[in-house]
Predict the 3D structure of the following.
Amino acid sequence: MLIRNAPDLTENDVTDHGLYLRRREFIGGAAGLGLAGLASTADAAPLRFSKGFSTTEKLTSREDVTTYNNFYEFGVDKADPAENAGKLKTRPWTVRIDGECEAPRTVGIDDLIKQNKLEERIYRMRCVEGWSMVIPWVGFPLRDLIASVKPTSKARFVAFETLMRPSEMPGQAWNVLEWPYREGLRIDEATHPLTLMAVGLYGETLPNQNGAPLRLVVPWKYGFKGIKSIVRISLTEKQPRTAWNISAPREYGFYSNVNPAVDHPRWSQATERRIGEFKRRETLPFNGYGQYVADLYRGMDLKANY
Ligand SMILES: Nc1nc2c(c(=O)[nH]1)N[C@H]1C(S)=C(S)[C@@H](COP(=O)(O)O)O[C@H]1N2
Ligand SMILES: [Mo]
């Protein structure tokens, strides 16, 4: 699918030699130090990325993007992930890609990053709770990863799983969700050019609280579809079970496309608060990405398929 000349997206696929993904390492337990608790590693080579399809809207501050988070493995309050996720060891880290494909593989995160062409994508993110941000991710299209394992004709869906490691993820001791966190996409959603595997944020390695070392970003869907700290990606014939749908099926559907016309059973989805702003703004269908993705849902009842 071609994406170009969009009023809201700028394309600059020419590699910008000034842009590098710098690696940063969190010092375990350096919670109170915030960003001052970061130290750079000398061993890692800087990784180059180009600028991809991005919104020109004002960015949400780095401070807000990294301290106002949902990551229930580290607690249910917005400040918990920044405070507790420093414990998570993101190296070594392997990702298993398997299921309905001819070339299943297990790949280390650093090889995965090296093997893929990184680009910056500035996307809106709309949480199902009614707030939103504009976030500069660094990552690569999920479609490239899927192509690398040669899907069979039976691959109709993609299932994702977060790491299960209660010793470093204290929230996994509580039954707020069925662990590990799971998500899923239809294969055509997963291979859409806008669907991104993020490994960086604000030009640097992804902070743990944002889903290091690898997280999904699907900008036209509610934020909870963007599963963090992924260890497994499986191509499946059947629609996968997903964490929020298991927990509250009437409230969180499999599709969860941003839709101002379909309210959450407990609140309206017509408006949202952009973090850093006071006045609420109107929520756009498909979070403003309708011209690129509405075709995926042609003929579907979006109220029934919420
Ligand atoms: N594994 C996992 N992934 C997750 C979540 C979570 O609790 N666990 N929360 C989701 C929700 S509700 C949102 S809004 C986004 C938040 O991403 P951010 O903290 O990077 O803004 O992550 C999603 N991915
Ligand atoms: Mo969310």
Remarks:
- The CA atoms of residues 127 and 273 lie 10 Å apart.
